[in-house]
Amino acid sequence: MTWIDDATLERLRRAADSPSLEGTRYTLIGKLGQGGMGGVYRVEDRQLERHVAMKVISVPDAEGELSRRLLQEARIIARLEHPGIVPIHDTGTLSDGRPYYAMKLVEGQRLDEYVSGVTTVSDRLRLFLRICDPVAFAHARGVLHRDLKPANIMVGPFGEVLVMDWGLSRMLFPANKPEPQPDQNALQSTDSSAPTQHGTLLGTPGYMAPEQQTGQPVDARADIYSLGAVLEFLLTRMNPGSVPRALAAIQKQSMATNPDQRYQTVKELAKDVEHFLDGLPVRAYPEGPLRRAWRWILRNRAWLLLLLIYVVVRALLIYFRPR
Amino acid sequence: MSDRTPFYGASQQFPLTRWSVVEAARSPNPEQRQRALETLISAYWKPVYKYIRLHWNKDGEQAKDLTQDFFARVLEKRLLDRFDPARARLRTYLRLCVDGVVMNTDKSAQRLKRGGDVTLVSLDFETAEGELQHLPIAAAGGPEELFAREFARSLFAHAVAELRTRCEQEFKTLHFQIFELYDIDGGAKELTYDDVARRFGIKATDVTNYLAFARREFRQRVLDELRKMTATEEEFRQEAQSLLGVKIS
């Protein structure tokens, strides 16, 4: 028997792991990543002559549980047609019995890699708002992500943000129910008339809401907690002294232990961040009259300066007016 | 390779299909228990031997005795009966049992020469010793990593041998040759599918199909073997994930 050295061992692992693509329109190019239940591969779609990403279950699945989860994930993503969410192209079963789905291949960087090139607080906050957008959209469609973290957020070559890996996502209401309007509060689904999802211990520590960690029922506010953790990630990579108090308060409120004390919707969170960027008061950081007045002065300093100049010039003209 | 050991042939004659060694070892039927042990030994004797040599730093003779001693204890003390899949994977449990055997031997310094006096099975220790020469010392890693890697090596060797046999029996030697060229000899780095097609006088599409067949069969054999070595579906999944977990280059 041939001696299997370490390099051969790795090749054999790869051989056993590689999906059987015969009979499909795809040709295997290479492996892009490995998740909990499946691998993601770069494959060539020979019919359309383009590269796409293919997610394939990589572990045995005798009971079909993982296959159901993969199909559920594909259906959820298919339901979320949004520029910030990777579109699904195709689903099926390979000749080796493993289910797969094909999706757009995203060429870009993960947020945790990309962020070092974004140096100012305002640029990071604009990036954060672009992350909030697809999450708010998903909530409006009744979908929780449940695993938001920098590693699951991609930034494309043109700065476009894509929220990836919906493998732990859950629907708050079934697909055949009429969808609420996009501007409708997604948390209506947590009313007594609508089911909430019972959380599991799936997720990522540090980005997972306390109620998700303890297996309590979770709703959109669990994703808001995770968004708060992403915001914290973006801010803590800055100089610690440079994070303004109002911004720190927004992050703190997003990550409140009690879901009732968090922002109740992603829209509310995003609005507070936008207010901060515009120099307006934020809901998470109540201010006294003096502070409010000072902020008003700062925000209108250009006009005030012009007014001051006008008053001074006018006063000088009056003073030096020939009598 | 275990095809040099007498018991591996027996295992093939009486495969423990859908039976894990743990279930079989608990069977009231002594033949079933014996087959369970044979299957266990076929997959684990090399990892155990190399683990004792490298992790416990024993010389070849000591390692041989301790390996025999370990499997004798598995049989006599019915160690598999005490295995609880809720607490550990079988692989980890066996490694800890090996540690126990070695430590007890070291403590007493009067080891019963169970392995030395009574040879449980005939194992090809010379080959295993020769393979050790190829192992880079730096790559040894921690005990769990070392044991897991040697287990994977042993299991993959079985699967390759079974794939070769099946391909020969079904007149698909070309399938195996292409698999061997690509995935064992590492030809994929230098050869395109067209190169291989020219070499064997077939179409490039046949190369991909033959390779896909061989890889699929190889995967199935790996998983079949792994299923025997795990007690629960969850453990099976975890082991498959760590065994097939491919490093992303």
Q: Could you walk me through the main structural features you see in this protein, from its secondary elements to its overall organization?
A:
The complex is a heterodimer of chains A (323) and B (249). Chain A is of the alpha+beta class and 323 residues long. Chain A has 3 domains: 82 residues, Phosphorylase Kinase, domain 1 (2-Layer Sandwich); 169 residues, Transferase(Phosphotransferase) domain 1 (Transferase(Phosphotransferase), domain 1, Orthogonal Bundle), CATH 1.10.510.10; 31 residues. Chain A has 10 helices and 12 strands. In chain A, the strands form 4 sheets. Chain A has a 5-stranded antiparallel sheet, covered by helices on one side. In chain A, strands 6-8-9 form a 3-stranded antiparallel sheet. Chain A is elongated, with a radius of gyration of 25 Å. About 7% of the residues of chain A have low confidence. Chain B is an all-alpha fold. Chain B has one domain. Chain B is 68% helix and 0% strand. Chain B is globular and about 65 Å long. At the A-B interface, helix 1 and strand 1 of A face helix 8, helix 9, helix 11 and helix 12 of B.
